[in-house]
Amino acid sequence: MRAKMRTMWLVGFVGCVLLVGSAVNATVTAPDAGGKLAIGYDGSNVTITEGTLVDSWNDQISTRGVDNASAGGSRRPQLVTVNTGNGNHQVVDFNGAQYLKTSAFANGDMIQTNVIFLVASFDTTPAGQSLFDGISSDKRNALYVRPKPSGTNGSYGMYAGSQIINENVLADTGSFHVFAASFTNGSNGWLRIDGNRVLYGDVGSEVLGGLSLGSNYGASGFFNGKIAEVLVYDGGLNTAQIESIESYLTNKYLVPEPASAALISLGLFGFLRRK
Fold this sequence. Notes:
The chain is of the alpha+beta class.
């Protein structure tokens, strides 16, 4: 009987190891949505030493030319490793006075519709912080958090010539979220957070001529938090494409690997069998 119990525990343990190994070794790339993926920044592709300042965050997508985001001197953010919810990941850490900015896009302005996804978290109570923007006052596709008129911090807003803002959805701190912002021919702009739409309306119709990360176009309104990945799509996306991209980012950064659940299940199986 004891020998049988030991055999069952050994099988369970080996099964756990195999499942964990499979989960860790799986490689998944960002959906290209029919060739619309134009720009991509991933913290795991920043090849510098932990804690080093980031001179340039290199664009991993070549469909529109290479659009690297860079900054100089004290304005450079830092590369750190944190647990985003699904294990440790390299992320770019902005401390409230730093940013990265592209030059004018290599292949010209991006005309709406543009859809921008990112995985990010706020470190401090957000007010007047920009997650991303354009690089000039007349070519903006911006997502930011601003104070409410009543003085409460943290209402999400979007701008591309016109502003929409939701006074009832406040940003939190310390948790990573998947943001998806669509700048859609003026009246149909929207923001989704973790798959839930929280903004909808007229954002204006400005083109996007370049990208600022961690600040507004004028290098102010600095973001205090961390960004793990940014994906910029040139063109409108259907519901299935949006959900596919959100699922990719959620599974990569927010949801614990299925192997963790399998480990618990196999352990419970062994315990019950032992009983």
